[in-house]
Amino acid sequence: MKLQADHNNAPNEPRSPKLSDRIYAGIFERIVNGEFVQGERLPSETALASEYRVSRPIVREALRRLREDGLIFSQKGAGSFVERPPDAAMLRYAPLESIADIQRCFEFRIALEGEAARLAAERASSQELAAIERAVNLLKERITARELGVDADFAFHLAISKATGNNFFSDSLLSLEGQITFGQNLARNLGLKHPNTRLPEVQAEHEKIFEAIRRHEGDRAHEAMRQHISNSRRRVFEG
Fold first, then answer.
1. Which of 3, 38, 121, 213 makes an SS bond possible with 218, Cβ 3.0 to 4.6 Å?
2. Is there a contact between 73 and 81 (Cβ–Cβ < 8 Å)?
3. Nearest residue to 183 via CA among 125, 130, 232
4. Whole-number Å distance between alpha carbons of 25 and 31
5. Axis crossing angle, helix 167-175 with helix 150-162, rounded to the nearest 10
6. 19-82 maps to which CATH number?
7. Which CATH superfamily is domain 101-238 in?
8. Contact 143/150 with Cβ under 8 angstroms?
9. Are 54 and 19 in contact (CB under 8 A)?
10. How far apart are the C-alpha atoms of 115 and 50, rounded to whole Å?
11. pTM metric for this prediction
């Protein structure tokens, strides 16, 4: 399923979801709707497997992803509990069937772009560093103007991927542009509820990544990028 960059347009030809996606979305919806409230213990893996007619490993995978998104937590020997409900406002921007894809896209980007940042720090030319800096400055202008700045955000990530010297990184990002900008739009629209913290937070993370790349500090750039995308995922699911 390809998510559209325009958050008002829902995907119209969804792919057949994986079983774990279906369980993830089902539990997600039940938390949003208040069937499972904050602090409540979820049914056991065995009970969920029976209810959804899937194997326990499928349920376990869905629960792992819900934990990564900060929606549930697990206690050894006690089961899984609702950490907090997601912001219901996100469903105004993303249909429920898109949520699993958004989560998977963030997961993939953490791996892909973390390594891209490391390679960019090791290989970027002066011209490529200038392109990354221009994108950082453009995003700063957008944030100052209280604009979403999705164009500048994507340009920043694309400039880093191009600075790797490996076109597979930039080609991968371009192939995911719809999904990435959909997630960026979602994060920005939810972030407008916290205009004095969320947007400056994003800018500070971008500047930290750029500074590490500029100084040719590969490990630091790798970690800063992974943390930035993890934070982006958190901002989406926390609202």
1. 121
2. yes
3. 232
4. 10
5. 150
6. 1.10.10.10
7. GntR ligand-binding domain-like (1.20.120.530)
8. no
9. yes
10. 40
11. 0.67
Residue 226 sits at the vertex; the CA angle it makes with 173 and 98, to the nearest 5 degrees, is 55
Q: pLDDT tens digits for the chain (239 residues)?
A: 334 444 444 334 344 458 888 898 899 888 877 899 999 999 999 999 999 999 999 999 999 989 887 889 999 889 999 988 766 555 555 555 567 778 888 989 999 999 999 999 999 999 999 999 999 999 999 888 878 789 999 999 999 999 999 999 999 999 989 888 888 887 777 666 666 778 888 899 999 999 999 999 999 999 999 999 999 988 887 65
Sign of CA dihedral 167, 233, 101, 57: positive
DSSP secondary-structure letter at 10?
-
Q: With residue 189 as reference, give the H or E element that holds it.
A: helix 177-191
Domain range summary for the chain, segments of one domain joined by +: 19-82, 101-238
175: helix, coil or strand?
A: helix
**Cα angle, residue 89 at apex, residues 86 and 94 outer, rounded to 5°:** 90
CA 41/CA 73 separation, integer angstroms: 10
* Strands, E assignment, 72-188: 72-75, 79-82
Span between the terminal Cα atoms of the chain, in Å: 23
Report yes or no: 31 and 85 within 8 Å, Cβ to Cβ.
yes
Choose among 184, 231, 185, 181: nearest CA to 204: 231
User: From CA 232, how far away is CA 81, in angstroms rounded?
Assistant: 23
What is the C-alpha R_g of the chain?
19
> Residue 88: helix, strand or coil by DSSP?
coil
